[in-house]
Design a protein that fits this description.
Largest sheet: 2 strands, antiparallel
Strand content: under 5%
Helix content: 40-55%
Distance between the termini: 55 Å
Order of helices and strands: HHHEE
Radius of gyration: 25 Å
Number of strands: 2
């Protein structure tokens, strides 16, 4: 009995909450404007790669074919290229184009 009542309350909440919380078009425009203003106020910083080591990323392993010399990162770059890069010795990628 209690489980049925709880399920009914959850179902009712799923129906009522989206109706009660529907934002107006004006609210959406206000949020977008606030985001645009906040982004404009950001100041670019200088890049720092201090402390970054590729060996810290264990998931960039040998990829699906460990004998081709390509890491998972290189395999993804090759498979997602709009124009495929040239794959040189040791899986050195040159050229290519991505979105």
């Amino acid at each position: 009995m209690i489980k049925s009542a709880l399920r009914g309350l959850v179902a009712a909440a799923l129906v009522v909450v989206p109706l009660a919380a529907a934002p107006s078009a004006h609210a959406a425009e206000t949020v977008l404007l606030a985001i645009a203003i906040a982004v404009d106020r950001l100041t670019p910083g200088t890049e720092s790669r201090e402390g970054c080591q590729r060996t810290s990323f264990k998931h960039w392993n040998a990829g699906p074919n460990p004998t081709d010399g390509c890491s998972t990162r290189a395999e993804v770059l090759i498979s997602e290229a709009v124009e495929a890069p040239e794959v040189g010795p040791g899986c050195r990628l040159t050229g290519g184009r991505w979105w």
